[in-house]
Amino acid sequence: MAGAQLAAKVGPAGTLSDSSHRTAPHVTIRGLTKRFSDATIYDNFDFDIPRGKLMSVFGPNGCGKSTLINMIAGLFPVDAGEILFDGQPLSSIKFGYVFQSYREAMFPWLRAFDNIAYPLKVMGVPKAERTVRVEKIVANLNVKIDLNLYPYQMSGGQQQLVSIMRALIVEPEILFLDEPFSALDYEMTLFMREQLQRIFVETATTTVLVSHDLEEAVYLSDRILLLSRRPARAVEFVHYDAPHPRTLKTMSDPEFISIKAHCLEIFQREVRKG
Amino acid sequence: MKRFEVFLPVVGVAVLLTVWSLTVWARVVDPVLLPSPISTFRAMWIGMTSGKLGLDFIKTVERTIYSTAIAAVIALPLGILLGSSEKVYRSVEFLIDFFRSTPASAMFPLFLVLFGVGDRTKISVAAFGAALVILFNVAYGVMNARKTRILAAKVMGASRLRVLWDVMLLESLPQTFVGLRNGVSLALVIVVVAEMFIGSTDGLGQRVFEAQQLFDMPDMYAAIFAAGALGYGLNLLFLTIERRFVHWAGK
Which helix (H) or strand (E) holds B155? Predict the structure, then answer.
């Protein structure tokens, strides 16, 4: 279970056969380096993101959890290093990104429906097909929100659900979520965890979630990446293979409890180092 | 008690009219200087329906609308252009702030030389003043577009032009309307002042000035109220348009 597995070897993407393709890492990060004016956040960082798993990134405050996925998703430039998706650069893949502040990430001048359809519009998909595809994703995810409303007429959870759908509409190969539930109240957070799990079970999209809540990270994830203080290293890559969807019962499952305790121990050790 | 709350907005008006009437009735002020509310509103009614005041009112409306329209046509695209690049805006910021702070009325003589005595001078001075106010607001609206929203569009693969068109432009609309409302108010001020002095034969400014020269106080007050109603109406008009088109503002 909780074993370190920091894959370092990877063959060139072109040589992978079909069967090994399914087990090969989805994203390979090599020699990633990032400095802000006052600190080195990443120094020659290597990591592989597994395919079709829900992975969480967790670590001490300010260690660069969000910076990591922002660099992978191309929001921040990297100072050095290489990030490849099945050997391809970011520009040749489809991905989705969900921001923490849904209020600032939604377009308030568009109805929820048009917000979800917007990435398709950017891609040049004709209007009729956009409508069909939004209706399809709404039906698939069994979402019961009035999508004729404007974002500001919705609750926070509804807005974040709309912004997750907006990220999923392009059928992304990989989905990034930057602390997606931290601006929601607890009731909404519980609801959204169930929604995210349903989406994951439904689509099996490689998902990378930045979390500031360890319990949430373990509860939702197949893999938990524990980072050290800056410059961030991968301290451990914890596995938790309980099947999805997980329920409140999972929280009292002995394996869940022991993994959470293990992660917490590592986290506290890393925090004390600083 | 609740039922009376709908009457709250008219309380101030009622008090003003009462104090005004009492002042006239008690002859605190010379009646030549302060006519009664009734004779003022009668002068306004007659002036607006059959007299010259109505024509002057329309003239002032025309000039204000023209100058605001010219200002908007120049300042909106320019503001978007300047705002879309912070470096460009910073390089001309001083000029904009300087001329924005220059009283437009100080430009009358210059514009008189350029455009002669007539509508063109009045409209162009007012347009000059309004354009700078609009420009400044539009540029700031574009510059202060939420970074997250721009990032969100970029992450979806939107080009720079599309980000400008789909996100920054719409983001700037609330601030743009602030600029338009301030611009139209300033244009009205400048137009009325221009009508008072430079060889004018019509307009509300000229009406106020002429009534004062003739010592026709009811007419003068009537023209002042007409100008006030115009300013209030224009502001209300822009607010209504804003609420309709920028429904998300402040939410």
Answer: helix B147-155
- List CB contacts (< 8 A) between A74 and chain B: 155
Residues of chain B neighbouring A105 (CB-CB closer than 8 A) = 148-149, 151-152
Query: What does each C-alpha distance from A150 to A110, A139, B56, B98, B142 come to in angstroms?
Result: 6, 20, 44, 40, 22
The model's pTM is: 0.81
List Cα–Cα distances, A103 to A6, A152, A168, B143, in angstroms.
36, 8, 18, 19
Report the alpha-carbon distance of residue B200 to residue B120 in Å, rounded: 12
Mark yes or no for CB contact A74/B155 under 8 Å.
Answer: yes
Q: What ipTM does this complex have?
A: 0.81
CA dist B182 and B141 (Å) reads 14
pLDDT digits (tens, 9 = 90+) for A56-85: 999 988 888 999 999 999 998 999 999 999
Q: Which of B33, B25, B23, B24 is nearest to B217 (CA)?
A: B33
Distance from CA of A248 to the nearest CA of B (A): 33
Query: Within an 8 Å CB–CB cutoff, is residue A58 touching chain B?
Result: no
Distance CA B57, CA B233 (A): 12
pLDDT at res. A22: 62
Q: Are B217 and B44 within 8 A, CB to CB? A: no
Burial (0-12, 13-18, 19+ Cβ within 10 Å), B152: buried
Q: Which residue of B has its CA nearest to A150?
A: B248
Peptide bond into A245 cis (omega under 30): yes
Mean pLDDT score across all residues of chain A: 87
pLDDT at B48 over 60: yes
Q: A163 pLDDT exceeds 70? A: yes
Cβ–Cβ below 8 Å for A119 and B156? yes
- Closest residue, chain A, to B174 (C-alpha): A109
CA gap B242, B235 in Å, rounded:
10
| Residue among A267, A84, A56 nearest A177 (CA) | A56
Q: Which pLDDT score, from 0 to 100, does residue A1 have? A: 38
